């Protein structure tokens, strides 16, 4: 009886959970925060079936007026037209004659209803009426600029309001081909810029003109795909590992409104679509992912995946194109699956993208209710904090706005809120601050002589006096490097003082990492590793000591290892003393005043470099040119030391891994 009851309970539980399991979305959705970190969230889009048609190779999908769906099938050599209810209403492409298509790969539907087809196999642009009747065709324009070697193989196009065509041509590195309504060539448009590598830069320095002419030219990436948004901007797609300019938003003059920014998750992007609010939807082919970008190109969400085993609706094999309709529903052509998959937006996505749209349009008050809805469903969105921070700023809640902007890593918003907070604090604290300063000055004037006399009359132990003298030398070295290092050369600085300087360096670096102003360090401080941060100071410092001593000893330098260690420790004085100014300063300036901190930081860097240069010259008794030459050699030696340490570390790890795996194998077989 008990066993039967257990089986019954298991069956009931299975029946309860079955809808949840079968209705699960077959991919994960992630939110990309302001630092580029991914966080898993609830779905934005869920699978909503496929278009019912036996496609063979759907490579392009376009949404026309009244949400009609135009599917370009390369193998069928046809354009299939579906209405908003997913019913096939028309097939475009005649069986013979001028209207016969050959492997079309893209197309565009003009606002007047005409259908432009990139008839790739026939190397032409074919134009059909809304009813599917062939109207005209445009082949390769007759233009001297194109030349006989130019292969006109159109793969996609868009058409502006004037009827001017912007055509992507396979493997063309000159940009889009512009053709007017009469078929005349208007020139190239929107070509990518070439990205010279470091190797090519070295070749230009070393090789002769004749040798350079034999090298393969560094050509720009071809434009692989093109789309158009609601405002008439051209959206060019150019996949590449550098990800800068992989998606560009070109205006009528060819300028990129996205300013050639690096777009997350775009290295193998094949297409992009824009919704009615200007949000971009990039289709990445390698991982089968769709990335949602805001109108400025910042990645917000990523969802989708490729099939691994069994065929699952909502997953991809070889996605090639994406489109979005007026209801914000997505259509993705997948030539690997031979289907056009459809996705519908969830209520959660509607709330967050509506709130984001209102925020970007400056309608902050209207967006507040949507942000609150989003936070009720998921509290992890910094974009929600960004929107609510803007609302708090408008209401005059500046400290709350600061907190919200900081949680959203919004430096501009934080700076604006802090500007107002700072004014309020200055107004509230000006009189007490003046009173404290005045009181301190009067007290100093009254007690200065007595304090100095009392300090001098104290019978300090010799060790303390020596330690104080070393601090005096350290301070003198900061302002007078040449004289200071000459004094230091004949002294023996205690290891207690050297350790004190190193400890102070650790504390200053920790303060720099954790206590710098948010405007200058907009990161999550809890994720930072102080040990890793300290390596950036102590590894170069330690290798400098080793390399400088070895190189200068070979070159006839007079400095001993202890003297190099002492002087290199004193060389940290600009970093220590000027950081004491930079850290508080970074907490009281706003974005517009950032140049002040930047200038002080540059002075600190230059003064530190000058200290190490002067230290090398004085400690080793070199002339100026000798010092310059040995400093360069020391820097090169440092790089060599790092290289060998990395190689030896890698080999040691491989040896350890080999021994460990061998040990496991022996123990397992035993």
TrEMBL record:
Keyword hit for Repeat: yes
One example GO MF annotation: zinc ion binding
Membrane topology according to the record: Multi-pass membrane protein
Regions that span the bilayer: none
SUPFAM superfamilies: NHL repeat (SSF101898), TPR-like (SSF48452)
Predominant subcellular localization, coarse grouping: membrane
Gene3D superfamilies hit by this protein: Tetratricopeptide repeat domain, TolB, C-terminal domain
Presence of the UniProt keyword Transit peptide in the record: no
UniProt keyword annotations, A-Z: Membrane, Repeat, Transmembrane, Transmembrane helix
Source domain of life: Bacteria
Location in or out of the cell: Membrane
GO CC terms: membrane
Protein name: Uncharacterized protein
Organism: Paenibacillus baekrokdamisoli
